[in-house]
Design goal:
Helix content is 60%, strand content 0%. It has nine helices and no strands. The radius of gyration is 27 Å and the shape is elongated. The relative contact order is 0.07.
């Protein structure tokens, strides 16, 4: 059995640190600094994360509760937790309680989503595009494509970028027998 100094064993090598972008590493480190400031406020210094997994998990749960109580953004707590589990790999499998706290916090947040346009606005847009295609033959192809893509995007609950990247092969048609689908 090889004996390795704990301080040396948990030093990250360059390949491990390059797994994430520099901006993401910076975000993790900033959250870790918030954790350290909180620990300093509580007069906890030189905490040995790997000595007692339960104490480490409890400390992280307390920090997450502190972030929640102080109405910080959830990503601060999440990034601090990710930083700790990245820096202290053996601790990763023992952090279920802190992750449960994050999930509980996530469940308390309000949901937000994109607001879809109303169906009458979609119908009007479709009618205008078809009308323009029929009256101006120089842009008929573009207007018909716009009309079809508006309906596909709306009923497919797609984002604008997803609609604009569609190609004919992405569309599934019902079985039409021997007939080829026509767009």
């Amino acid at each position: 059995m090889v004996h390795v100094n704990k301080a040396v064993r948990h030093r990250l090598v360059p390949l491990e640190t390059s797994r994430h972008s520099r901006d993401y590493q910076h975000a993790l480190y900033k959250a870790y600094q918030v954790l350290l400031a909180w620990m300093t406020f509580l007069q906890i210094q030189n905490f040995k994360w790997l000595d007692d997994y339960e104490a480490s998990a409890q400390l992280l749960c307390d920090f997450i509760q502190y972030c929640f109580d102080e109405e910080m953004k959830i990503h601060v707590a999440r990034h601090a937790l990710l930083y700790i589990q990245t820096m202290y790999r053996p601790l990763k499998t023992h952090l279920q309680r802190p992750w449960d706290c994050i999930k509980s916090w996530q469940g308390k947040l309000e949901w937000s989503s994109r607001v879809a346009i109303r169906i009458d606005i979609l119908s009007a847009l479709f009618a205008v595009c078809v009308n323009e295609a029929l009256t101006d033959s120089s842009y008929a192809y573009e207007f018909l494509c716009c009309a079809v893509l508006c309906r596909i995007g709306f009923f497919g609950v797609m984002r604008i970028g997803e609609v604009l990247q569609l190609v004919c092969g992405d569309l599934a048609f019902p079985n039409l027998g021997d007939e080829d689908p026509v767009l």
